[in-house]
Specification:
The chain is an alpha/beta fold. It is built from 6 helices and 10 strands, in the order βββαββαβαβαβαββα.
């Protein structure tokens, strides 16, 4: 079996005396798309921040091509973030202001997921990490905000907040799922390892190869999409709707 491009082993992250990631393991191979799913406070953003070298883990390993980079120097981290690992946050990503010439807009449109991912996938990166995919109303602070909450199903909810401009009616999450799936299927000959973090199991399951479900900072389920979807349906987990 080929060595994974990105491997996370026994990762622990503590914030203000609270463990937000508790012994998490994750493996992603070149060309593989892993869906990282969980409600607010499940640990998704913290896990990606560690994998993206923006947050130091309390303990555990982050391996890139088999080399542990969790304890890399600041200079080494900056170099890896510019050349090997790209972390994008969809909840915070914005598109250029739009409007008639001379018209001041009250806010900025959030860039659609497929637009942000297209830029990341076109780069030189071995690993692409995307936080808040398909979370139309996700908070920019992600997991740091809440301790609980349910995963959601495909929902075309509008952006909220004083600086948010409502999405175009036709730009629903369901449409974004289609566009992201098409984008991922036409990746280059040397595709990166991709992790898509979302509150929506249903949406991620449509584009991922495997799924990891985080529950209170731990892996609650993991495996191929059909297996995890079936298991979550049996558990009656929110975020899934019958076809």
């Amino acid at each position: 079996m080929a060595r994974p491009v990105l491997e996370i082993r026994e990762l622990w992250v503590r914030r203000q005396e609270r463990a937000v990631c508790r012994g998490v393991d994750l493996r992603v191979s070149a060309g593989e798309v892993v869906g990282l799913v969980g409600g607010p406070g499940a640990g998704k953003s913290s896990l990606l921040a560690c994998a993206g070298l923006e947050l130091a883990a309390s303990s555990g390993s982050v391996l890139l091509h088999g080399v542990d980079i969790a304890g890399a120097t600041c200079e080494r981290r900056r170099a890896l973030r510019s050349s090997a690992i790209d972390l994008v946050r969809l909840s915070a990503a914005t598109a250029p202001d739009r409007g008639p010439a001379g018209t001041a807009l009250t806010g900025r449109l959030r860039a659609p997921a497929h637009v942000v991912l297209a830029g990341a996938l076109a780069g030189p990166f071995d690993v692409v990490l995307a936080d808040g995919v398909f979370d139309a109303d996700a908070d920019a602070d992600g997991d740091a905000e809440a301790d609980g909450g349910a995963m959601t199903g495909v929902d075309a909810g509008a952006d909220r907040g004083p600086l948010a401009v409502p999405r175009d009616p036709g730009e629903s999450v369901a449409r974004q799922v289609e566009l992201v799936d098409a984008l991922l299927r036409r990746r280059p000959s040397r595709p990166p390892a991709v992790v898509l973090a979302s509150r929506s199991l249903e949406a991620v399951a449509a584009v991922a190869d495997t799924v990891v479900v985080l529950v209170d900072g731990q892996v609650g389920d993991a495996g191929p999409v059909p297996q995890v979807v079936a298991g979550q349906r049996c558990l009656g987990a929110p975020g899934l709707r019958s076809a």
